[in-house]
Amino acid sequence: MTTHRGFLAQCEHELLHLSGAIQPHGALLAVAADGRVTHASDNLGTLLGLDPQSLLGEALPAPLATPLGRLGQLPGARLFVPLVEGVAGDFALLASRNAAGQAVIELLPDNEEEMLLDDVSPLVHIGSREELMMQRQSLVERIVELSGFDRVLFYRFLPSGDGEVLAEALGAGAQGRYLGLRFPASDIPGIARALYVKNPWRSIPDAAAVSVPLLGLDDAPPPDLTLADLRSLSPMHQLYLHNMGVASAISFPLTIGDELTALISCHAVRPRRLPLSRLNRLSQEVESFALAEKTYRTRTRQNMLDGLERHFNGVRRQVTRQGGLRQAWSLLSPWLMTEFDADGAMLCGEGTVLREGLSLEPEALDAVERWCEGEEVVTRISDHLLADCPEMPLSEVAGLLAISLLTPSGERLRCYLCREEEAQEVAWGGNPDKPVEFQSGPVPIAPRRSFETWLETRLGYSRPWPEQARLKLLKLRQLLQEAT
Ligand code: BLA
C-alpha cells in the first residue's frame, strides 16, 4: 500500500492544464495580451487550411480577431460564438481568458444535429429524501435520453474523497453495472477535480484519439488550458477509460462553492461527440437538479436545527432548575443519545466523569481527551477512532462525537457521544488497495484493470455519522453553553 501511495502522489503532480496539447476534434490558438499569437495547434492546417507555424508571432487573422474583440479582459472571461463567418467550413468558436491573461481560442467543427427532444428543462422540486433519490434517478435517465450515451452515473464524493455511485441509468450499449459501488479518491486526482469545478463539463469524445501538440512562439511556456474544452486527455485517464471499456466520456460537475460534491459521469462504448448546444442543454439539466438539491438541503438543515432547539427547550428548563449540566445529566444523557442516535454519552469535567450506556474505558478516554485538547478544538467527529485519534487503544467505542464547552465559571467540559463497532460492508469497483498496477516502461504505473466488485468488510468502524453532524453539534454546543 505504501508503494502504491508513493506512486499515486505522482498523479497529483501531473499538470493537466499545462499539457501543451489538445484533443484532435478541434483546433486551438493562444493570443498574448499584445494581440500576437503565442501558440497554434498542429492540426490548424488539416482543419482550417492555415499554417500554424506562420501564425506564430503574428496578429490573429481577421475572421477570428473580430469575434475575439468581445472577450472580456479579466481572467475567467468566456465567449461563445456559434458560427464564425469567413473561416473555412462551419466552426463554432469558444474563447476564454486564462490566468496569464492570454486569450485561448478554440475552433470546433460544427456538428449541430437537429434537436428532436423537447427543449425545456423540467423544473425540479425536491421536498423529501425519497424525492431526492427519485430526482437523482430521473436526472441520470434524462441524460441518457438526451445524450445518447450508454451509461450515466451519479457519482457522489464522500468526505474522505472516495466516491460512490448513487444512481445509474443505462442506454442500449451498456454492459455491467456500477450502482452502489465505491471508488477510491485516487481515481480522480485533486488536480483534476479543481479543473472540473471551473468548467461546466469535461468532454472526451474519443478517449483513444491521439492528442495534437501546440506549437509555441520561440520558447513560450505551454499556455494554461484550465478553461479549454479541448485540453488533451491525461494518458493515465486514457488507460483507465480503456480498462473500463469506455470509448467516450463526459462529466458534469455538481458543486457547492468551490467544492466538487458530485459528478454526473457519462460513458459511451463508441466514440461520440455531442454538439455544444446539446452539452449546454445537458449542463442546464444538471444545474436545475443542483439548484433544487441546494434548496432542499438548506431547508432540511434549518428544520434540523429548529427541531434540535425545540426539543432542547424542555431539557434547558431542567438544566437551569437543577443548577447545571452535571446535575441534570440523568435527563440530559438519554435525550442526547436519542437525538444523535448514539449508544452512549459521557460528560467529563475537571475531576468528574459521568457516563450513560456505552462509554470510553479509562485509557481510551485519556487518548480522546488529548485529541480534543486545545482552545480551537470545539468539535471532533469520527466513525473510526482507531485511525483518527492518535494513540487510541482498542476500545468498545468505535465512533465518537465530541464537543468542548466553557461554563460561565470558566470550567472546560467535554461531552462525548459514543457508538459501538459495527462491521461495515463496502462494495468497491475493483480492489481499492491496488488502485494502480505496476508495469515496465517509461511510466511505471497504470490504473487497475479490473473493476469487478470487490467486497471489503471494514472492522473498527461505527455506523457513519450523518452528513450534517458537525452543524448539529455546533448548535448543541451553543444550546448547552446557554443553558449553563
Ligand atoms: C479523471 N476519473 C476522471 C474522471 C472520472 C474518473 C469521472 C473525469 C473525466 C471523465 O469524465 O472521464 C473516474 N469515472 C471515474 C470513476 C467512475 C467513472 C471512479 O465513471 C466510476 C464509475 N486515475 C486513476 C489513477 C490516476 C488517475 C491511478 O485511476 C492517476 C495517475 C488519473 N483521472 C485521472 C486523471 C484524470 C481523471 C489525471 C483527469 C482526466 C482529464 O480531465 O484529462
Automatic annotation (TrEMBL):
Residues 131-288 form the Phytochrome chromophore attachment site domain. It comes from the Bacteria. GO terms for biological process: detection of visible light; regulation of DNA-templated transcription. Signal peptide: none annotated. InterPro entries: GAF, GAF-like_dom_sf, PAS, PAS-like_dom_sf, PAS_2, Phyto_chromo_attachment, Phytochrome, Phytochrome_cen-reg. It holds the Pfam family PAS_2. The keyword Cell membrane does not apply. Gene3D superfamilies: 3.30.450.270, 3.30.450.40, PAS domain (3.30.450.20). Keywords: Chromophore, Photoreceptor protein, Receptor, Sensory transduction. The keyword ATP-binding does not apply. GO terms for molecular function: photoreceptor activity. Residues 28-60 form the PAS domain. SUPFAM superfamilies: GAF domain-like (SSF55781), PYP-like sensor domain (PAS domain) (SSF55785). This is GAF domain-containing protein. It comes from Vreelandella zhuhanensis. The lineage of its organism: Bacteria, Pseudomonadati, Pseudomonadota, Gammaproteobacteria, Oceanospirillales.
